[in-house]
């Protein structure tokens, strides 16, 4: 019995431990440069417009309507009037152009510019993948190879599909070679009458007097990734008799899904288990209470998350309410970040603390859009007391510029209507009332450096990452914004002091962020 116990101890403890040690000892001490990606050259290539010498004599007629659409070598921001209607300025604001460089001059532009460009260079190196590079297949190549779609997990091995040689000339000997940089090449089997050189190395050469045998051998060529550098690509060169073909093999982990369990439900959408309402408050407890009361009329069990950075926070209590207190004046976006980070449902509905739910605030409709389309975020409409309602649909363009930076152009409007949802459109930016996929919103995040006057910034950061829509048939009311000076309460006055600061400090810091973080030099809008 005793002996048996001892034996058990040895087996149960020492064996796993020795495996553990073995594991530690087999840890690779290979040193790998993970910065070895090429940064791309200037993407703007208008060289086809200047012909090669041998084509210079060929006459042509330029089409200016197409030339105008091509990217220009440098962007400019000039306010342009897009439509001229009476009361335009009162209704939709006037066109504007802002120069961020000019805001930076008093802050020491030269040093900041140098730092920004250095960071930008690193960003390009980090975000660039060799798989994004343009590869041209030269004419008349007898080589057959995969154009795209070949993928390998980091440090794993695959057979390269689709390799072949179609040599029409009868030859004594056929030879091909393959080379790569982030891995090694080998063969899964050796075919008769084929000579193999460099198996297991970065370059492999296969030759044979029999074309069929060589082609059979090509089907069995394997690639092993040896440099763990996730989310990049290896560029493979395939050569034979003066012909060269280049293709890429993507190296990456699979995308890990992040799924939310909606739970069992009989109705179509159980809003309480699908959606959390998030808001940020500052001083305006009366307005916040109105919002909560209005939500409870329609959604009695939905969770409401409140981020609060008031100086003397008041208690907000009730079922399904989470109240997070932050340091005084931590700011607008910091509060949004905090609130959204606490959401555990699939969707989050963003509302301002002075909104009021009404019978047209149908969250189900917004959920339906996100469930049935590839959109990540969909905005509604905010109705003012005047009855006028706004969706604040924006189109955002970043136009390539020069060393000073790129140009940001925002336009009121949208891209197109969404099929099956006649009230919904695709845009780049929407109003402060939106439903979004929680994980996607967290990925973009709200930059906590923006303490006041911010909204569009989130959509600029999300450009290309967030697929945005807007529906004007889901409406929330806005507690009166138009107020007579003498009807303002003490809280209102204090609130406006912080929310609409008189100093230009907030504006300058916003310009600084545009200038440095987004590498923009100026902005226009209408
Ligand atoms: C912005 O202002 C700076 C300094 O005043 C000037 O050098 C620059 O050319 C301007 N940039 C644009 C895009 O207008
Ligand atoms: C909806 O979800 C909530 C929270 O997950 C749950 O308590 C409730 O029973 C569900 N209601 C229905 C009708 O399924």
UniProtKB/TrEMBL annotation:
Compartment list: Golgi apparatus membrane
Membrane topology: Single-pass type II membrane protein
Entry coiled-coil feature ranges: none
Protein name (database record): Beta-1,4 N-acetylgalactosaminyltransferase
Major site of localization recorded for this protein: Golgi
GO molecular function per UniProt: acetylgalactosaminyltransferase activity
Keywords (A to Z) from UniProt: Disulfide bond, Glycosyltransferase, Golgi apparatus, Membrane, Signal-anchor, Transferase, Transmembrane, Transmembrane helix
Keyword Membrane appears in the UniProt entry: yes
Subunit structure: Homodimer; disulfide-linked.
BP GO terms, sorted: ganglioside biosynthetic process
Domain spans labelled Glycosyltransferase 2-like: 277-403
Annotated organism of origin: Engystomops pustulosus
Matching InterPro entries: Glyco_trans_2-like (IPR001173), GM2_synthase (IPR011143), Nucleotide-diphossugar_trans (IPR029044)
Superkingdom in the source lineage: Eukaryota
Pfam family, one: Glycos_transf_2
Transmembrane segments: 7-25
Gene Ontology CC terms, in alphabetical order: Golgi membrane
UniProt family annotation: Belongs to the glycosyltransferase 2 family.
């Amino acid at each position: 019995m005793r002996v048996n116990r001892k034996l058990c101890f040895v087996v149960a403890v020492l064996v796993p431990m020795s495996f553990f040690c073995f594991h530690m000892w087999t840890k690779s001490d290979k040193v790998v440069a993970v910065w070895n990606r090429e940064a791309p050259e200037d993407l703007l290539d208008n060289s086809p417009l200047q012909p090669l010498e041998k084509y210079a004599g060929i006459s042509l007629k330029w089409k200016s309507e197409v030339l105008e659409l091509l990217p220009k070598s440098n962007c400019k921001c000039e306010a342009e009037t897009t439509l001229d209607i009476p009361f335009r300025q009162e209704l939709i604001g006037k066109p504007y152009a802002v120069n961020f460089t000019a805001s930076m001059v008093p802050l020491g532009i030269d040093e900041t510019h140098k730092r920004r460009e250095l960071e930008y260079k690193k960003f390009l190196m980090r975000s660039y993948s060799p798989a994004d590079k343009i590869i041209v297949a030269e004419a008349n190549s007898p080589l057959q190879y995969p154009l795209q779609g070949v993928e390998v997990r980091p440090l794993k091995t695959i057979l390269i599909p689709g390799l072949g040689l179609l040599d029409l000339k009868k030859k004594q000997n056929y030879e091909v070679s393959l080379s790569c940089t982030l891995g090694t090449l080998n063969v899964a089997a050796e075919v008769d009458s084929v000579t193999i050189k460099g198996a297991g190395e970065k370059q492999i050469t296969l030759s044979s007097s029999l074309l069929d045998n060589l082609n059979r051998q090509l089907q069995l060529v394997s690639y092993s990734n040896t440099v763990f550098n996730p989310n990049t690509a290896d560029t493979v060169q395939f050569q034979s008799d003066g012909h060269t073909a280049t293709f890429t093999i993507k190296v990456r982990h699979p995308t890990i899904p992040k799924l939310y369990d909606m739970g069992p439900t009989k109705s179509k959408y159980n809003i309480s288990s699908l959606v959390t309402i998030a808001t940020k408050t500052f001083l305006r407890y009366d307005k916040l209470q109105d919002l909560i009361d209005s939500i409870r009329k329609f959604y009695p069990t939905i969770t409401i998350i409140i981020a609060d950075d008031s100086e003397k926070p008041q208690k907000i209590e009730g079922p399904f309410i989470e109240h997070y207190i932050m340091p005084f004046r931590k700011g607008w976006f910091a509060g949004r970040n905090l609130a959204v980070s606490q959401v555990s449902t699939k969707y989050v509905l963003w509302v301002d603390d002075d909104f009021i739910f009404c019978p047209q605030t149908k969250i189900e409709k917004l959920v339906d859009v996100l469930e049935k389309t590839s959109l990540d975020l969909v905005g509604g409409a905010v109705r003012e007391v005047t009855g006028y309602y706004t969706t604040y649909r924006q189109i955002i363009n970043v136009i390539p510029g020069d060393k000073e930076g790129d140009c940001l152009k925002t336009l009121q409007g949208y891209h197109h209507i969404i099929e099956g949802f006649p009230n919904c459109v695709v845009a780049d930016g929407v109003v402060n009332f939106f439903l979004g996929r929680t994980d996607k919103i967290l990925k973009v995040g709200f930059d906590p450096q923006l303490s006041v006057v911010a909204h569009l910034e989130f959509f600029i950061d999300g450009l290309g990452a967030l697929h945005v829509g807007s529906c004007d048939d889901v409406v929330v009311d806005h507690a009166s914004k138009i107020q007579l000076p003498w009807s303002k309460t003490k809280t209102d006055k204090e609130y406006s002091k912080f929310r609409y600061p008189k100093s230009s400090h907030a504006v300058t810091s916003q310009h600084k962020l545009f200038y440095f973080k987004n590498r923009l030099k100026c902005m226009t809008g209408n």
